[in-house]
Structures are given as C-alpha cells and as structure tokens.
Specification:
The chain has a domain at 37-116: Cytochrome Bc1 Complex, Chain D, domain 2, CATH 1.10.760. The longest helix is centred in the first third of the chain and has 13 residues, at 11-23. It has helices spanning 11-23, 40-50, 72-77, 83-91, 104-116. It contains five helices and no strands. The chain is globular. The chain is mainly α.
C-alpha cells in the first residue's frame, strides 16, 4: 500500500504551505479559525469521489477508467507540471471534464495528494512553497 505521507509534512515545508493557505484565507477568518494545511488523505478521498470515474487515481495503476484521461500518477509526474496548471484545469475544466466547484481547501488537498504520487522527490512541491495566494485563471 502506498503511504500518503506528503513531502510537505516536513517542518519547513509545512510552515511554507501554512503561510500560503493563510494568505489566501478570507479576511473574516479569526486567528483561532486559521486554515489547516492541505491533507493528502482528504485529497485522495476527494479524488475518489469526483475523479475516479474518468481517471485512475491510485499510484498502483489498478482500476478502470475511460480511455483518454491521464492517470493521476501521470498528471503528477508530467514533465514541467505545475500546481498552477492543475489549478487552472480544476477551476476552468475542459470538456468533457465537469466543473466540480472545488474550494481553495479542496484544491489544496488534491494538490497534496498528487504530490504523494510524484516519483522525483527532488521535483518542486505541489503547490510550490512561497507561491502566495492561489491564482485563478481569468474568466473566458
């Protein structure tokens, strides 16, 4: 079984990710209601809920999916892959991908799960540390 221990669980990376998510939190959030760091476990659960009908989401490559959509392992390891590209696709999906209306927290969780599937542990984290607020694509 593949462990869902993301690389961001390291103290320095966790601090950077927390600062990213706090920077994108609504101004009305009180200090005691601060955003929690992204969860790879919750990201996998969301992926199973929304994505497994079309994508193979597990690292083991087992399961069935439609012909055409890439597996999550492929998405995570695609050369040049960035968190911003994944965010763009999730926020403004291309047909036939449905718009799931994901929250910032849900997108962060999916990115954290995808990070656990990366085979090159020297590749930049998804999302990269120090990236600030999530950038959303301009409406078409």
């Amino acid at each position: 079984m593949h462990k869902l221990t993301p690389r961001w669980a390291r103290p320095a990376a966790t601090l950077a990710l927390v600062s990213i998510w706090l920077g994108s939190a609504p101004q009305s959030v009180r200090a005691d209601e601060e955003a929690k760091p992204p969860s790879a476990v919750e990201g996998r659960q969301l992926s199973e809920k929304f994505c497994k009908g079309c994508h193979i989401i597990g690292p083991e490559g087992a399961g069935t999916a439609q012909v055409g959509p890439p597996s999550f392992a492929y998405i995570a390891n695609k050369p040049g892959q960035t968190a911003q590209h994944i965010i763009d696709v999730l926020v403004q999906p291309h047909p036939p991908m449905p718009d799931m209306h994901l929250t910032n927290e849900e997108i962060g969780n999916i990115l954290a799960y995808l990070d656990t599937l990366r085979t090159d542990k020297n590749a930049p984290l998804l999302p990269p540390s120090g990236s600030g607020k999530l950038k959303y694509p301009s409406p078409s």
